[in-house]
């Protein structure tokens, strides 16, 4: 079964779905179902120049850096299946479940990293991530595959201010209607109250226009500027014809126009004067203008600039440590991961009795991200073992060493003998008291000098 055929089957409500949509529209004439407004492209400076959100990410370096940093870390973080016993107890990692199989193999030739990209990539670009459920074993059985839906070809029908009633996909040409229960939708609610998410790029329209104008200005200056390091000034009493001036201009441009000819030495004939030139103040402020736009990108995505590129020059903040950068980045990833856990729980797991009755849930594991150097991990493991926090096997497991798997290695180390009961059940005396089984020699107090 190919991906295309799986998608076709997952969306195949065909005439029945279209008929259901028409009947639903007739049945909900008061209030009428309305399409939820979709994200609009970014308008750039110039005549009829627009760019999509996806092109904005691919074109502007800072947006691409923030997007790729978030996406690649979220998509490569391990997502495990757990059994939640409830009652405040810690969930237990479980394997060999059909849910685990679905997450690890969502479609032929695809894995967990692909699934997380299907969710997080359009979520970070368009504000919404969508995947459809495909039930290969029958409608009453849990999904056997998950299929990505392209947000650019999706429409949502809802009552004004209400939840989505129908999803409509144009991804395979013909309009196909999808029931909301057969879709996993990852999004933060829009500021206007819709359950459809708003792209963070929508708030960056001005920043994108500024960065685009700055890049175009730089490209234009490189392509069109004639920069000998000065100008030729013809004396006032010199008589020249338009043809002579055009010939002179062509000769100068041939020698100095373009970035590869910048700052060549000009040879002057008699009677001409040399005027040195420099960049204007507006050109000098161009870098600061672009830096301000870059800060806006980090604010919109809630990522500190130190995560992307660390500034240590004059006038900048003190150098940030690696531990602080990892901590800040973890705080940026945690809200997105928590939202995904809740969405998968409510829209994928809970509707399926086989998974809901087993109290299954999913959790992201960011332990690898927060780990330090190998030396730091060794110190933490040794410290935890000697103080009774870890067992020997747990300490070795943190370092990816071979597990001993003995009764002694599975039990946490007891650091103080006073914590163990005596063989007859009595507790040993505190360490401040004298052990009665051992003879103690006392030292007499020192007397006055000379005694």
Topology:
Layout: H1 3-10, H2 14-27, E1 34-35, E2 42-43, E3 50-51, H3 53-59, H4 61-75, E4 78-83, E5 92-93, H5 98-104, H6 112-126, E6 129-134, E7 145-149, E8 154-158, E9 164-169, E10 176-178, E11 183-186, H7 205-224, E12 230-233, H8 242-256, E13 273-276, H9 281-284, H10 286-301, H11 305-308, H12 322-349, H13 353-356, E14 360-365, H14 367-370, H15 374-386, H16 392-398
Antiparallel strand pairs: 1-8, 2-3, 4-5, 4-14, 6-7, 6-11, 8-9, 9-10, 12-13
**Class of secondary structure makeup:** alpha+beta
Helix content: 40-55%
Oligomer: single chain
Order of helices and strands: HHEEEHHEEHHEEEEEEHEHEHHHHHEHHH
Number of strands: 14
Low-confidence stretches: 9-31, 312-317
Q: Which overall shape is indicated by the principal axes computed on the Cα atoms?
A: flat
Alpha-carbon distance between the termini? Answer: 102 Å
Report mean pLDDT, rounded to a whole number: 76
Strand order of the largest sheet: 1-8-9-10
Beta-strand percent range: 5-15%
Written description of the protein model:
The structure is a single chain. By secondary structure, this protein is of the alpha+beta class. The protein has 3 domains: 1-202 and 278-370, no CATH class; 206-277, no CATH class; 373-419, no CATH class. It is 40% helix and 13% strand. It has helices at residues 3-10, 14-27, 53-59, 61-75, 98-104, 112-126, 205-224, 242-256, 281-284, 286-301, 305-308, 322-349, 353-356, 367-370, 374-386, 392-398, and strands at 34-35, 42-43, 50-51, 78-83, 92-93, 129-134, 145-149, 154-158, 164-169, 176-178, 183-186, 230-233, 273-276, 360-365. Strands 1-8-9-10 form a 4-stranded antiparallel β-sheet, covered by helices on one side. It has a 3-stranded antiparallel β-sheet with strand order 5-4-14. Strands 7-6-11 form a 3-stranded antiparallel β-sheet. A hairpin with a 6-residue loop joins β9 and β10. The longest helix has 28 residues, at 322-349. The N and C termini lie far apart (102 Å). The model is unreliable at 9-31 and 312-317 (pLDDT under 50).
């Amino acid at each position: 079964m190919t991906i295309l055929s799986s998608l076709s089957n997952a969306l195949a409500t065909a005439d029945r779905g279209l008929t259901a949509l028409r009947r639903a529209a007739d049945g909900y004439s008061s209030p009428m179902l309305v399409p939820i407004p979709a994200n609009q492209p970014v308008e750039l400076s110039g005549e009829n120049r627009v760019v999509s959100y996806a092109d904005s990410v691919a074109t502007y370096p800072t947006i691409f850096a923030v997007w790729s940093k978030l996406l690649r870390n979220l998509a490569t973080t391990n997502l495990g299946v757990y059994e939640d016993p409830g009652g405040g107890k810690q969930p237990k990692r479980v394997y060999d479940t059909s849910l685990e199989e679905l997450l690890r193999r969502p479609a032929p030739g695809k894995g967990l990293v692909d699934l997380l990209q299907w969710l997080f990539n359009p979520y970070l670009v368009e504000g919404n991530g969508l995947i459809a459920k495909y039930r290969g074993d029958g409608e009453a059985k849990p999904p056997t595959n998950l299929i990505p839906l392209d947000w650019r070809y999706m429409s949502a029908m809802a009552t004004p201010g209400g939840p989505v009633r129908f999803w409509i996909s144009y991804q395979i040409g013909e309009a196909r209607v999808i029931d909301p229960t057969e879709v996993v939708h990852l999004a933060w609610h829009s500021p206007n109250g819709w359950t459809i998410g708003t792209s963070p790029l929508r708030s960056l329209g001005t920043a994108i226009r500024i960065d685009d104008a700055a890049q175009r200005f730089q490209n234009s200056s490189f392509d069109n500027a004639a920069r000998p390091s000065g100008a030729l000034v013809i004396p006032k009493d010199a008589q020249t014809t338009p043809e002579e001036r055009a010939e002179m201009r062509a000769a100068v441009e041939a020698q100095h126009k373009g970035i590869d000819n910048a700052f060549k030495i000009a040879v002057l004939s008699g009677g001409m004067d040399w005027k040195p030139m420099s960049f204007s103040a507006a050109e000098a402020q161009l870098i600061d203008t672009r830096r301000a736009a870059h800060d806006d990108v980090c604010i919109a995505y809630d990522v500190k600039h130190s995560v992307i590129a660390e500034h240590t020059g004059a006038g900048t903040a003190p150098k940030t440590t690696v531990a602080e950068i990892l901590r800040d980045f973890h705080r940026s990833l945690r809200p997105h991961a928590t939202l995904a856990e809740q969405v998968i729980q409510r829209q994928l797991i809970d509707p399926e009795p086989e998974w809901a009755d087993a109290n299954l849930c999913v959790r992201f594991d960011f332990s690898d991200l927060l780990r330090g150097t190998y030396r730091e991990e060794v110190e933490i493991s040794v410290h935890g073992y000697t103080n009774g926090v870890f067992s020997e096997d747990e300490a070795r497991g943190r370092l990816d060493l071979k597990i001993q798997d003995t009764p002694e290695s599975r039990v946490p180390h007891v650091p103080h003998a006073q914590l163990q009961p005596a063989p007859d059940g009595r507790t040993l005396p505190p360490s401040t008291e004298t052990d009665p089984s051992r003879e103690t020699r006392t030292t007499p107090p020192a007397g006055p000098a000379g005694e």
